[in-house]
Design goal:
With 130 residues, this protein is mostly helical. The chain folds into two domains: 34 residues; 64 residues, no CATH class. The strands form two sheets. A two-stranded antiparallel sheet has the order 1-2. A two-stranded antiparallel ribbon has the order 3-4. Strand 1 and strand 2 form a beta hairpin. It is extended and about 60 Å long.
Length: 130
């Protein structure tokens, strides 16, 4: 039961932060004279979806034309340049995500390197090559 409670706690905090962020930004969208739902739909569709993106459903599935001229429904995130741009965004973000993850693992292990002479490693002075 404690595992379930921890999982709910660890998921609820980021979700609450996202909802509060969207709610706070909605105030500014309304003050600008636009509809928040339409604004968020355009934000996600133009950032991750195919052109044109009429609904949030287009982020998951899209219609593409085959060589024979027929329309075929495909899973957008896996389709790449012809479908959802989310695959391209994830492709470009992967090196940054992995770099941050490797730094986080090293920092949690107590190992860090600032790349200078006299740097510290795990609280002890690193050996000098001279």
């Amino acid at each position: 039961m404690k595992i379930v409670r921890r999982a709910v706690d660890s998921l609820s905090i980021p979700l609450i932060a996202i909802v509060l962020g969207l709610a706070a930004s909605s105030v500014f969208v309304i003050l600008a004279g636009a509809q928040p739902i339409d604004t968020y739909q355009r934000l996600f569709c133009e950032g991750f979806g195919p052109n044109p993106c009429n609904t949030f459903g287009d982020l998951l599935f899209t219609q593409v034309e085959t060589e024979e001229g027929a329309l075929q429904t495909v899973f957008s995130p896996a389709y790449g340049a012809g479908g959802s741009r989310i695959a391209l965004v994830l492709e470009q973000a992967t090196p940054l995500i992995l770099t941050a993850l490797s730094a986080a693992v090293a920092f949690q292990a107590g190992m860090f390197s600032i790349g200078m002479d006299g740097q510290f490693l795990m609280g002890a002075r690193s050996p000098s090559p001279f």
